[in-house]
Amino acid sequence: MHLFLDLIRLRIEADGIEKICRRAAEIRGSRGGAMDNQDGSNDIENIEGTWREMERNASGFYENENDAGSVRQPLLRKRTMNTTSQIAIVGANVCPIESLDYEIVENDLFKQDWRSRKKIQIFQYVLLKWALALLIGLATGVVGFFNNLAVENIAGFKLLLTSNLMLEHRYFTAFLAYGGINLILAAAAAALCAYIAPAAAGSGIPEVKAYLNGVDAYSILAPSTLFVKIFGSIGGVSAGFVLGKEGPMVHTGACIANLLGQGGSRKYHLTWTWLRYFKSDRDRRDLITCGSAAGVAAAFRAPVGGVLFALEEAASWWRSALLWRTFFTTAIVAVVLRGLIEYCRSGKCGLFGKGGLIMFDISSNVSTYSTPDLIAVIVLGIIGGVFGALFNYLLDRILRTYSFINEKGAPYKILLTITISILTSCCSYGLPWLAKCTPCPKDLEEECPTVGRSGNFKNFHCPPGYYNDLASLFLNTNDDAIRNLFSGGTGNEFHMSTLFLFFAAIYGLGLVTYGVAVPSGLFIPVILAGATYGRITGTLLGPISDLDAGLFALLGAASFLGGTMRMTVSVCVILLELTNDLLMLSLVMLVLLISKTVADCFNKGVYDQIVMMKGLPYMEAHAEPYMRHLVAGDVVSGPLITFSGVEKVGNIVQALRLTGHNGFPVIDEPPFSDAPELFGLVLRSHLLVLLKGKRFTRERVKTGVKEILQRFGAFDFAKAGSGKGLKFEDLNILEEEMDMFVDLHPITNTSPYTVVETMSLAKAAVLFRELGLRHLCVVPKTPGRPPIVGILTRHDFTPEHILGLFPHIHPHK
Amino acid sequence: MHLFLDLIRLRIEADGIEKICRRAAEIRGSRGGAMDNQDGSNDIENIEGTWREMERNASGFYENENDAGSVRQPLLRKRTMNTTSQIAIVGANVCPIESLDYEIVENDLFKQDWRSRKKIQIFQYVLLKWALALLIGLATGVVGFFNNLAVENIAGFKLLLTSNLMLEHRYFTAFLAYGGINLILAAAAAALCAYIAPAAAGSGIPEVKAYLNGVDAYSILAPSTLFVKIFGSIGGVSAGFVLGKEGPMVHTGACIANLLGQGGSRKYHLTWTWLRYFKSDRDRRDLITCGSAAGVAAAFRAPVGGVLFALEEAASWWRSALLWRTFFTTAIVAVVLRGLIEYCRSGKCGLFGKGGLIMFDISSNVSTYSTPDLIAVIVLGIIGGVFGALFNYLLDRILRTYSFINEKGAPYKILLTITISILTSCCSYGLPWLAKCTPCPKDLEEECPTVGRSGNFKNFHCPPGYYNDLASLFLNTNDDAIRNLFSGGTGNEFHMSTLFLFFAAIYGLGLVTYGVAVPSGLFIPVILAGATYGRITGTLLGPISDLDAGLFALLGAASFLGGTMRMTVSVCVILLELTNDLLMLSLVMLVLLISKTVADCFNKGVYDQIVMMKGLPYMEAHAEPYMRHLVAGDVVSGPLITFSGVEKVGNIVQALRLTGHNGFPVIDEPPFSDAPELFGLVLRSHLLVLLKGKRFTRERVKTGVKEILQRFGAFDFAKAGSGKGLKFEDLNILEEEMDMFVDLHPITNTSPYTVVETMSLAKAAVLFRELGLRHLCVVPKTPGRPPIVGILTRHDFTPEHILGLFPHIHPHK
C-alpha cells in the first residue's frame, strides 16, 4: 500500500532538495506514512523471486490497504491525522526523516574484529573521546564568545549612533539610522537562513532534542546549518529583535559536536581522518549531548546548568559516564570564556565591556522572608504559570499561521522577517516617547542620565538631569534590559505604566518574532517578559511583601520559564549561576514548582510542542495507555522482504533499488539449516558496502568471515556520517554478476532484538525506546510458520500510525 | 545440582535469622550459588509429573553439574570465585538477597482491572504520589533537624563540661569526663546496632545504591533499621568519632520513603491503608530515590545537590518525571529546615545555635587567579586523587579484617566499637598537648581565646591570651572543625605541625572508624582530611600562589571527595551550596576532574567497592566485554519447572514447597493450543494468592477472568511490602484439593520479555539491565523443541556465575 508513496519518492529523488520540499508539500495529504520510507518494511512491490508472503492477523483494517493496484487513490488518508506531520513549520525544509540506530551490531565480522583489536586501540579510542570533549568545549566556548563580541560591538555601535543623533535632537534621523541598521541586519540574517540553511531558523533546541531521541531530520546538524546559526544569530540579536542567542548556542554546540565527531565535512573538504573512529550513532549521540550542554554553558556561563539542561531537556538516554564527560566539556567552556573575558578586560575588544555575557550580580542578600512574602511568591507563581501556558498556546497558533507564509518560498520568508523587524524598531523607538521624563534620583552613585553605556537611566529625549525609564529597557541590548530589571534596590526607578507597556510589547513581540526565518532563542524573550511581570507584581504586592523589586523580577522570570519550558532543576541552577545569589534558591524552586504545575494543566512544554508540530516522530519514555490493548502483531503492516543466508545478487540489488528499507531479515533455509530460521538482520548500508566489494560466487555456498576480512576491514562497515555513506547509485553491478551469489552471513547482525507477536504493544514500545532501537523483529508465537512476522520501526509506534489503523481506540484510555 | 544447597536452605529455614547467618557463614564454600534460591529456575528436584526435561547445548561444563546424585560433594566449588560474596562484611547479617522486579505485569486480570479503572482513581494515584513526596520531604527534614539538634546539644554539653573542667585545671577529670561520655555514647550506639538492626551499621549509601539497582537484601530498609539509623547516628556523631551523619541521613531518607511507600509497618502496628496503592517495586523505587535525595538535602542543606546525588550516585534508572518529583521533595526539605532553624534562632533549642547544619560562608571573593594558582590547584588535585585512592584501598583492607571480628557476634562488635572510641578520645584529648600555645593575634574582631563556643581559638591548657590551635580542631564537633579549616583570611592561625598531626590522625581514625558497628558516613572524615590536606598544600605552595588558605582547604576537600567517592557534578553542587561561593566553582570543577581521573587509574569508587564487598549482585549499565563471546543459552543452567495453563494443584504446591523459584513459565498444550507454546510467566506471589483463594475445579477446564475477579480484586495480587506477602506456610490445601485443577491463565503475565537462545549474552544483559527485569525467558531458535529453554535471572549475569561456568574466559577481553 505504500506503492503510491514510493513512486513519488523515486520520482522526486531525481530532483534537487528544494524541489523535494515543494513536491512533498503538494502531496501533504499522503504524508503521514512517508516517514518509514527510509525505515520500515511495509512496502509491497513485487520483487521477483524474493517475496515471502507472510500470513497476517485477519483484520478488516488491512483489507483496503492491500489493494495496491489503485495507485492514484490517496490510500493513506486514514493515517494522516496530523496534517502538519513531516513538515517543519518554522522555516525548515520538508525532507526525509531518518531514524538513528543505537543497537550494537554483533555480526561475525565485528566479533572477529573485536578479538583482533589490541589494547592500545581501545586506549586510543577512550583518549579520543576525551580529546573530542575537550575540542567541543574549546570550540563552543570560542564561538560563544565570538558571538557575544560581535553582538556587543554591532549593537553597541548602533545604539551609540542613535543616542548621539538624539543628543543632537535629530530624532527622525536617529530613527532612520536605528531602524535602517536593524532592517539590514535582519534581512541579511533572514537571507542566510532562507537560502543557505533553512534548518537553522528557530531555536534549534527542539531539533537537538529530537536528534538525541533518535530522529535524524535532514541537515539538522550540517556544517551549513552551523555557519548560518552562528552568523544568523549574530545578525538577529544585533538587529534588536526580541529573541535570544541561547537556543541557537545549544544548536551551535550540537553542530560543532557533530562536525567534530564525524571527522569534519567531506563536502567542504574539511576532514580529519584520525577523528573518524566515531562510526556509530551511539558515540555521536554522546558527543552531541556534550555539545548541547556546552552550548548552554557558553550562552549563560553556567557550566553546571549546562549539564543539567542536557540531562533534563535535551537527552533521551543518559548514563553516569556521560554526566562526567558532559561536565568536563562545560568546565572547559567555562575556563575558555573566563580566559577570553580576562583578555578583553584590558579594552582590546571594542565595545565589549562588562555587558558581554549576561551575568547579573543581584546580591540582594535576602536572608529572611515572612509568610506574606511567601503568599506573594505563590500568587506570582500561579499567574506566571498561566501566562506561560498562554504563551505556548499563542506561539503554536502563530507558528501555524507563519507556516503558510514560510512555505511560499525564501523571498516570503525574508519579507516576513523585514516586517517584524520594522515593527520591532517602531515599538522600541516609538514607545519610549509615551513615557514621562523622570528627574534623576539625588543620592546616587551611578551617573544619571547614562550616556553611551548601559544602565538604568537612559536620557532619550529628556533634558539633562532627567531620564526616560522605558528607553532604558527598549534602547538597550536584551541582556542589558534584563540586568536593569533585575537590579536591586531600585524599587521606584521604573514607573508602573512603563512596566505595563514594556510587558505588553515584549510578550507580543516575543510571540511574533520566534517564527521568522532567523535563529532565535526563546530564553531571552521569556526572561524579559517574566522579569517585567515580576517587577509589576512586586510593586502591586508591595504593601504585603518586603521583598526587593529586583528579586521579584528574578522570581517572575523563573515563573515564566517554568510556565513555558517546563524545566525545573536546570532553570533553577542556570538562574543561580546567572545571578550568583544562593539565598534566593528556595524561592526560585517554589516558584518553578508552582508555575510548572499550573501550566502543565493546560498544555505541553514549548519545545515538546514544536517537536510535535514539526512532525518529528519523538518517542516518549513511557508507552501510551491505549498501547496496552494492542499486541505487537497488530501494528506490523504488510509483508516484508527477506533474504536468504546466501542470496542472489540480483535479488538484493532489486530490493535495494525498489525500496528504501534500512533493514532486511536474513533467513537461513536448507541446506544451511534444518528448517527455515531467522538468522538475523542485515542493514542496507552494510549490503551496499558488501555489493561494492564484489565478493560474489557462482554457486550458492558460504564464503565465511575470513574471506570477507581479506577484502574489508570492519571499519568499512562502520556507519558513515550523515550524507556520506555509500548510495545505491554508487553501485556498479554488471549484468552477469546479477545471477551470482553473495554470502550475507558475515555481515548479518545475529542478535537482533525480537518480540513475540503476542507481546503487548506497550511493552514492545518500552523495549524499543529504552534500548534505542531502529528495528524490532516480530517473531511468530506458534510453530510451523515462517520465522519472522515483520519488523517494527519508530513509525509503527507513532500515535498517527496506530490510531490510523485502529480509529475506534480512545487515545487516552 | 542445587539440591545440596536447597536441602541446607530448607533445613535452616526452620531456625531463626541469627542461626541462618551463622550457618551460612559455615557453608561459605558453597555460597556463590545460593543467590538464586529466591530467584532462579535452576533446581532439579524431581517434582512428580511436572518435569519437562529440556534439551541443552552440548557443553562439557554442564556434565559434572548434572550428576546431582553425589549430594555431599561441594559441587559449586567452581562458582565460588569470590569467597566474600553474599556476606555483608560491615556488620550486617548474611541473609537472602532478593531481586526486585520492575517489569509491568500484563496479565488478563490486570488488563480487566485497568479497563474498569475510573479516571478519578488515576487522579488519586497521581495525587498520592505527590502527597508521598511531600510527606517524605517533611519527615526527612524533621528527622534531619532533630538529628542535628540532638548532636549539637549532646556534644555541646560534653565539650562545655570538658572545657569548664580544664579551666579549673582538673585535666585528668576532664579527660575522664570526655572519654567517659564518648565511651557511653559509643557503646549505646553499638549495642543498638548490633542487637536490633545490624543492617544499620556503616554508611548505608551502598545499600541504597544496590536497592535502587534492583537488589533487596534483608531488612535494608526495615523500620528497625530506620530507628537504629537515627539514634545510632546521633550517638556515634556525639561520641566524637571521626564519622559523619550524611551517609546515614541518605539511608534514613530511603527508609522513611520505604516505610511511607508501603503504607507503614504491619509488624509495629503502624499502617495506613490509604497509602497502600504503591504495590509495585517500580513505584517504590521512585519513592526511595526521592528519599535518598531528601537525605542529602537534609544533611547538607543542599536541595539541588541532593537531586544530583540521587541522579549521579544512587539511582540506576532515571527519567525526567522523577527529576521533577525529587526536586519537589528536596525543596520541601529545604523549606522545613529553614523554618525550624528560624524557630531555633530565638534560642529555644538549647545549645543548637549557628553551629547546627553545616553551612560554611566562605565568601573569599576570589575573582581572579593566575597561572601559578592553576598549577598549584592541579598539583593539589593530583595528590588528592592519590590520597583518595589510597583511602579506598586501605578501607577495603580494614573492612576485610574487621569482618572477622564482627562475624563473631554482637559482643565483639561492641568491644571493637569501644576500642575505637577510646582510641579516638585519646587522640583528640591527648594530641593537643603536643601543640604549642600561640599568642592571640592582636587585630581581631573575634573573641580570643574562644570559651564555650565554636571558633578558631580554643584555649585548652593555655594561659589567657593564648590559644591551642590543635584543640580548635580536635575538641569541636566535626562540623565546627571543618568550618575552622574553611575559614578565610586566617593563613597563619594553624601551625604547619598542627595541620600535619591533625591530618595524620584524621586520615587514620577515619579509616578505622568506618567499619565499626555504628551508623557512620564517609563524607565528613573525607572532607576533614581533605580540608587539612588542602591547607597544608596551600601553605606549602604559598610562595607561588596567592589563593587564600580557606579556599585551598575547600579545594583539598573537593580533591579528596573526588578521589574517594568519584562523584563529580553532585559534589560540586553540594560544595557550592555548602559554601555559598559561586566564584570558586570552576576551580572546584577542575580539582574534581583531576582527582577523579587520577584515582580511577588505581581502583573503583568507595561505594562501588563496598557494594562488591558485601556481595550485592549489582548490575552495571554496560555489559562486560567477555559477554560478547557468549550467548544467552550458554549461561542458562539446568532444566526448569514449568506449569500447564490449567495445572494440577498438587503439582503447584509441590513446586512451591520444594523450590524457592520466583517465576514459572506457563506452557499451553493441547487441547488449549495446537502445539505446546509458551503462554507466559507466572509469579510465585500470584500463585500463592490464587491457591489461597481456592478456586479449584475437578476437571481440566479454563475458568476465565470473570470467575477470578469475583473472588479477587487485582489489588490482592499487587506486590506486598517486604516481608508482608503471603508465605507458603500460610497455605492450607486439603488432601482432596491436591488432585483438583486450577486455571493459571488469568494471572499469567502474557508478555514476558524473551530472547532467543543464540542472542549474544552482552545484548541480553543490556536488555535485562535497561528494563530492570527479574526474569528473562530464553526461547529456542529452532522449531520443534519445547517452547522455552530456560530463565535468566540477575544471578546468571554475575561475573562469578559466568566465569565459574567458563573458567577459561579472560574477564577483561
Automatic annotation (TrEMBL), chains A, B:
Top-level taxonomic group: Eukaryota
Residue ranges crossing the lipid bilayer per the database entry: 125-151, 171-197, 287-311, 317-337, 374-394, 499-528, 582-602
Protein localization: Membrane
Statement: the UniProt record of this protein carries the keyword Lipid metabolism: no
Keywords: CBS domain, Chloride, Chloride channel, Ion channel, Ion transport, Membrane, Repeat, Transmembrane, Transmembrane helix, Transport, Voltage-gated channel
Signal peptide: none
PANTHER family according to UniProt: CHLORIDE CHANNEL PROTEIN (PTHR11689:SF144), CHLORIDE CHANNEL PROTEIN CLC FAMILY MEMBER (PTHR11689)
InterPro entries: CBS_dom, CBS_dom_sf, Cl-channel/antiporter, Cl-channel_core, Cl_channel_pln, ClC
Chain ranges of the CBS domain: 747-808
Similarity section: Belongs to the chloride channel (TC 2.A.49) family.
Species per Swiss-Prot/TrEMBL record: Musa troglodytarum
GO molecular function, one term: voltage-gated chloride channel activity
Entry's Gene Ontology cellular component terms: chloride channel complex; plant-type vacuole membrane
The name this protein goes by in its record: Chloride channel protein
